[in-house]
TrEMBL record:
Lineage per the UniProt record: Bacteria, Bacillati, Bacillota, Bacilli, Bacillales
Family, per entry: Belongs to the bacterial ribosomal protein bS18 family.
GO cellular component: cytosolic small ribosomal subunit
Functional note: Binds as a heterodimer with protein bS6 to the central domain of the 16S rRNA, where it helps stabilize the platform of the 30S subunit.
Designated name of the protein: Small ribosomal subunit protein bS18
Keyword tags: Ribonucleoprotein, Ribosomal protein, RNA-binding, rRNA-binding
GO molecular function, one term: small ribosomal subunit rRNA binding
Biological process terms in GO annotation: translation
Pfam families: Ribosomal_S18
Record text on subunit structure and interactions: Part of the 30S ribosomal subunit. Forms a tight heterodimer with protein bS6.
Residue ranges of coiled coil: none
Length: 76
């Protein structure tokens, strides 16, 4: 439990590590949508809470999904 008056921000944990998923799959659109803003930008690691390894995999997976039109580049 965070202490009073000390910031109290908890460190986010990587959802891929928690679920024991070793690789981010570009076909898993439901999971990848959690790492996009409503404008279609990829969330940075400090906001998403991913570890460095999985953040790189998520970025590549989103770019691949966009390439084959599974995910949008932007929302308009």
């Amino acid at each position: 439990m965070p202490r009073k008056g000390r910031g109290g921000k908890r460190r986010k944990v990587c959802q891929f590590c928690v679920d024991k998923i070793d690789h981010a799959d570009y076909k898993d659109i439901g999971r990848l949508n959690k790492f996009l803003t409503e404008r279609g930008k990829i969330l940075p690691r400090r906001i998403s809470g991913n570890c460095a390894r999985h953040q790189r995999q998520v970025t590549v997976a989103i770019k691949r999904a966009r390439q084959i039109a599974l995910m949008p580049y932007t929302t308009e």
